[in-house]
Design goal:
The complex is a heterodimer of chains A (81) and B (405).
Chain A lengths: L1 E4 L9 H5 L17 E2 L5 H9 L6 E4 L2 H6 L11
Chain B lengths: L28 E2 L3 H5 L8 E4 L9 E4 L2 H9 L4 E2 L24 H9 L5 H25 L2 E3 H18 L6 H13 L4 H22 L5 H7 L1 E2 L2 E2 L2 H14 L3 H15 L1 H9 L4 H11 L4 E6 L3 E3 L2 E3 L4 E5 H4 L34 H18 L3 E3 L6 E3 L5 E3 L2 E4 L1
Parallel strand pairs in B: 3-11
Antiparallel strand pairs in B: 1-13, 2-3, 4-8, 5-15, 6-7, 8-11, 9-10, 12-15, 13-14
Helix pairs in contact in B: 4-5, 4-14, 5-10, 6-7, 7-9, 10-14, 12-14
Classes of the chains: A alpha+beta (81), B alpha+beta (405).
């Protein structure tokens, strides 16, 4: 499962990170780090809760079969540094 | 109610007899519930024009749907927040910063201030916040079985945290609260007087800190650089005034509304007392149910928005208390469900101006309720008393007398 991060829409509410700080990492100003997020097996529930907590709709679940199939072999886009 | 002058471009059928100041339930009233009262707008059209929806009687478009408010507040290019709302009380024109700056200037100042009020910073401040709450509540518990929550807890708690953050002396707490009350809830004489006092105070503080820097907020602002230069005097004032005004009233009001709700809903009160882990989620629901702020934007150009002709210069109101009761966004919006999930409420606004202090505010409310419920047994509104609530630009509650045994 992958979470698409619309970085330009993030306004630093930090609700995602309140739900799952290990999945949704913030910068020093409190905004989400750029780059889509690949979610490990077993963390899907937390990840989708975090995604659904964003007041700005800056996060989007990408649960298409293609994305799921690729997720095993392909690195997340826009890697976080 | 007399209808004010309505601009020509507004179709008469889009005008509604509504005002956050004067509609039923908005004027100060004992045992009022102004949040429930505004929810009635959802029975009408999603956007309408109110001819008298500001303090000085100006008309605004009223955006009722959360999704439309999100669009307005996210689009700072079309809907500007530069209104000089504070300075205009003095007959002047300068922005409170960053609130009344539009992008891209806004982002520069926002980036300067964000780290000071980030979720990480709020966590660092947590022990001091908790200590302050415990001290106040222990004093209240030791003194008897009743108290005036606003006077003895909500204001001394939140304003103390805030003054410490700013590096201002605690012994002037009552004075500062008085200024803020006059400014936010005062009449046409008290408001400009309070505004003048606050500006003079901020200017004087800047002068002092410039001469003798210390480790506090004002010194930080004076020494800061934006775009490779120091801040101008008007910018320092704009930031100082905003931070001063924004922190003095709203968090205390939130705690007041929350404790009033719990005093009237003993089952919810007992649930949170016996399972304090639920408090953080419950606070989100209480923020949804009892937000305090109405945002107003000014259209920078003509735009047809959801079938409504908004013209350059029109005021557009995005009231958090209205968005938060939108049935299209929240299932059973008028039911307060302390276990509500996926609660994407608008209490702190949407878009680039999202409340800068939101993370600190949240921690204060959660900690305030945690310590209150841990130390005060089952409490109710004291018999023979009635908290007075009010609508307006900033919703408020005063005179909340609680009793327990």
């Amino acid at each position: 499962m992958r979470i698409i991060v619309h970085k330009h829409k993030c306004q630093g509410h930090a609700r995602c990170s309140a739900q799952a700080p290990d999945i949704f990492k913030l910068d020093d100003e409190g905004y989400i780090l750029p780059g889509d997020i690949e979610v490990a097996e077993g963390k899907h529930l937390l990840a989708s809760r975090g995604t659904r907590s964003c007041p700005e709709r800056a996060l989007e679940l990408d649960a298409t079969p293609a994305a799921r199939a690729e997720s095993d072999v392909i690195q997340p886009r826009g890697r976080r540094v | 109610m007399a209808i004010n002058w309505v601009p020509d471009h507004i179709p008469p059928e889009m005008v509604r007899d509504f005002s956050l100041f004067k509609s039923p339930g908005m004027l100060p009233a004992p045992n009022g519930d102004p949040h429930a009262a505004v929810a009635c707008v959802h029975a009408g059209p999603p956007i309408f024009y109110s001819p008298y929806n500001t303090r000085d009687g100006r008309g605004t478009w009223v955006i009722t749907r959360a999704s439309d408010q999100r669009r307005v507040l996210q689009d700072a290019e079309t809907f500007s927040s530069h209104r000089s709302i504070f300075a205009s009380a003095l007959g002047e024109n300068w922005p409170m910063i960053p609130l009344e700056l539009d992008p891209p200037a806004h982002g520069v100042f926002r980036s300067l201030l964000n780290p000071l009020l980030s979720p990480k910073r709020a966590m660092v401040l947590e022990p001091a916040i908790r200590e302050r709450a415990v001290t106040l509540i222990d004093r209240i518990a030791a003194a008897g079985t009743s108290c005036d929550v606003m006077k003895e807890f909500a204001f001394p708690f939140t304003v103390n945290i805030f003054l410490r953050f700013l590096g201002l002396p605690d012994h002037r707490l009552d004075t500062f609260v008085g200024w803020a009350k006059d400014l936010i809830h005062g009449d046409h004489l008290k408001r400009p007087a309070a505004a003048q006092t606050i500006v003079a105070f901020i200017d004087e503080l800047a002068t002092k800190r410039r001469k003798d820097p210390v480790d506090d907020f004002m010194t930080f602002i004076l020494q800061a650089q934006v775009e490779g230069r120091q801040l101008s005097d008007v910018e320092v004032r704009g930031i100082g005034v905003l931070v001063f005004v924004a922190g003095l009233d709203t968090v205390a009001a939130a705690i007041g509304f929350d404790l009033a709700y719990l005093a009237r809903n003993l089952k919810d009160q007992e649930l949170l007392r016996s399972e304090p882990d639920r408090i953080a989620l419950a606070v989100e629901e209480l923020l949804r149910a009892y937000p305090t702020v109405q945002m107003i934007r000014v259209a920078t150009k003509d735009i047809d928005f959801e079938g409504v002709p908004i013209r350059k210069g029109d005021y557009v109101s995005c009231a958090t208390m209205i968005a938060n009761r939108d049935p299209a966004e929240f299932e059973c919006p008028n039911t307060i469900d302390l276990a509500r999930e996926n609660n994407r409420h608008a209490a702190f606004g949407y878009g680039p101006h999202r409340c800068l202090g939101s993370h600190l505010a949240r921690r204060e409310i959660v900690i305030g309720l945690e310590e209150w419920l841990a130390r005060i047994p089952a409490f109710r509104i004291k018999k023979g008393t009635a908290p007075i609530t009010s609508g307006g630009h900033v919703f408020g509650i005063k005179n909340l007398i609680l009793h327990w045994s």
